[in-house]
């Protein structure tokens, strides 16, 4: 396996910047997810690494080589696509063997590699079938097998689970994670699904508008989103983001809403908002960091219940607060009704604060 280094990578299509100045290092054996909304540039980034499209500027290094000008076949990569791209008329055996046959490897060597890969991926009993005789998950494993036998330096995966139904997606998520662990594979994995990135990857590269927004472990990205975009993109239900204004009075720092309810900040949070470029800040809170009260308690602010969604283990409640929808989670035994007047209290230790102008996290 090998590391991959992207340095100041740019891809333009006429005036459109698909990828802007993306720099990141994928360490040897690391699983990195490129994640972001549609059009953010993640597929373009993957295709640049694969060599399927030429770069506009910057450098791509795989292992010890700068591969900018190398053909895809010379980059020592294997791709696994959304539609698996299996040959419909070939058996599973021949689908997996195909890249080795193209390399004119001896048939005894091919046989050994195909059977080894089939055993590791638990598809030995399917080798004589054709792709149409397989389930989605089995086809996925065949596609992984075909990538695996090539013994590449890097696996590139583009939304490999998006054609599967919800249950199979979850199952294949753990299979790909297991694949990564078993083979110490360097994997770059494109997905629009933040949950897939959070659950599978060692690191996630969150992209928006062609820019790399944040590159870190899922735990770090979740705990310390660097800006409003990352805060709103990572986590489900989404982090609630409430625009407020900072005022100070008698040494106290207070956040005030358009409706004039207020939250007095702890010393630590007060220090953070001192770094804001204007009086506008955005308060961010994850669903579990907000407490719902049936009556007013110290530090709570008035709000109204919008919807109540029981899921069994936990009930998600959406609440209107100053024209913003706030997500809260409650134990299923908590009794609350739509349109009910309630009060919310924010946990100051788990509060996020963002600059209302620059949208950057206030540290
Ligand atoms: P999706 O999840 O929808 O595939 P993505 O994040 O992978 O989106 P890209 O496909 O990388 O996004 O596209 C990034 C930007 O580049 C988009 O604005 C897209 O319209 C533009 N783009 C991509 N390919 C081309 C092309 N061949 N010609 C012109 N613009 C393109």
Automatic annotation (TrEMBL):
<comment type="similarity">
    <text>Belongs to the ABC transporter superfamily.</text>
</comment>
<dbReference type="InterPro" id="IPR013611">
    <property type="entry name" value="Transp-assoc_OB_typ2"/>
</dbReference>
<dbReference type="GO" id="GO:0140359">
    <property type="term" value="F:ABC-type transporter activity"/>
</dbReference>
<keyword id="KW-0547">Nucleotide-binding</keyword>
<dbReference type="GO" id="GO:0005524">
    <property type="term" value="F:ATP binding"/>
</dbReference>
<dbReference type="GO" id="GO:0055052">
    <property type="term" value="C:ATP-binding cassette (ABC) transporter complex, substrate-binding subunit-containing"/>
</dbReference>
<dbReference type="InterPro" id="IPR017871">
    <property type="entry name" value="ABC_transporter-like_CS"/>
</dbReference>
<dbReference type="Pfam" id="PF00005">
    <property type="entry name" value="ABC_tran"/>
</dbReference>
<protein>
    <submittedName>
        <fullName>Carbohydrate ABC transporter ATP-binding protein, CUT1 family (TC 3.A.1.1.-)</fullName>
    </submittedName>
</protein>
<dbReference type="InterPro" id="IPR003439">
    <property type="entry name" value="ABC_transporter-like_ATP-bd"/>
</dbReference>
<dbReference type="InterPro" id="IPR008995">
    <property type="entry name" value="Mo/tungstate-bd_C_term_dom"/>
</dbReference>
<dbReference type="GO" id="GO:0016887">
    <property type="term" value="F:ATP hydrolysis activity"/>
</dbReference>
<dbReference type="InterPro" id="IPR047641">
    <property type="entry name" value="ABC_transpr_MalK/UgpC-like"/>
</dbReference>
<dbReference type="InterPro" id="IPR003593">
    <property type="entry name" value="AAA+_ATPase"/>
</dbReference>
<dbReference type="InterPro" id="IPR012340">
    <property type="entry name" value="NA-bd_OB-fold"/>
</dbReference>
<dbReference type="InterPro" id="IPR015855">
    <property type="entry name" value="ABC_transpr_MalK-like"/>
</dbReference>
<dbReference type="GO" id="GO:0008643">
    <property type="term" value="P:carbohydrate transport"/>
</dbReference>
<keyword id="KW-0067">ATP-binding</keyword>
<keyword id="KW-0813">Transport</keyword>
<feature type="domain" description="ABC transporter">
    <location>
        <begin position="4"/>
        <end position="234"/>
    </location>
</feature>
<dbReference type="InterPro" id="IPR027417">
    <property type="entry name" value="P-loop_NTPase"/>
</dbReference>
<dbReference type="Pfam" id="PF08402">
    <property type="entry name" value="TOBE_2"/>
</dbReference>
